Amino acid sequence: MQDVDFYPEKPDLVEYTPKSSLSLTIFSLVVFVMAFLLFFEDQFLFLLNLLIVLVIHELGHFIAMKGFKYKNVRMLFIPLMGAFVQGKKSNYSQKQSLIVLISGPFPGIMIGNLLYWYSTWSAYNYWLAEPALLFILLNVINLLPLDPLDGGQMFKLIVKRVNEFLLMIFALVSSLVLIGIGAHMRNPFIIGFGFLMAFRVRALQKKYQMHKELLGESVNYATSYKLLSNKDFSKIKEVVLQHTPALRKFIDQVSSEEADPILASQVNNVLVTPIVRDASFFFKLLVVAFWVVSFLSPWILSMVLKTQMWSPDAL
Prior knowledge:
two-stranded parallel ribbon; 13 helices; disordered C terminus
């Protein structure tokens, strides 16, 4: 009763629900294709193979999310970068989240190895060799323990305790590694992605500072917006406004009807959705085993086949 009496009712959180996920997916796909052909107009066959690999990878995530009743699940393509699937749940399960993550790269690696096996067994069919290489290469890279790749997300889920400061350092190191890889490969897109991740590190740092203040005031920010008390909402709102002077200035100039949805969204961004750590030691060990085998699969397969390796011309 005290929470209701002394603190105003928190505003409703207005969540964006796309009217048509399919139309947005198709639009992002068209933009992806146009951007690719703008820079590599003579690489249509490579683009086709790339799209097949990306769609199968993301379709694995998509099906797993749908199976676990995620809401607003949609697939989007990022020009010259790749693709991703996003969805939401009110309560996250460690086991389900790991299954969602492995459902993308693991099937792709299996398909790539099978295609490689068949292309070599049948006198090296080049039309199968290129997609096989793409399936293996892109999915193995995606399993690297770098944020925000699938491997980085898996690493954060498997570790016993998540420390926000260490996650911030993890994200910073990931961005520097990607910038270094991009510079070594002379790929401006990878370098650009690395710098974009550096901006994300700044956002993580800001959230880390706010969480430290909230922890000192005994505010429970590890919850969903629906379960957030009016008292904790008021305290989180004040911390958000302290760290965002421009937002405070804007809020002071508009009506409560305009301010409330914005404040609700900003407070929700500060919250950490709790995850139920229901994955057994054996299950996590199995995931790690598949993870290691996936990295080693190209070398294992080449040793089993004992045939010609990829030549520079074939790559």
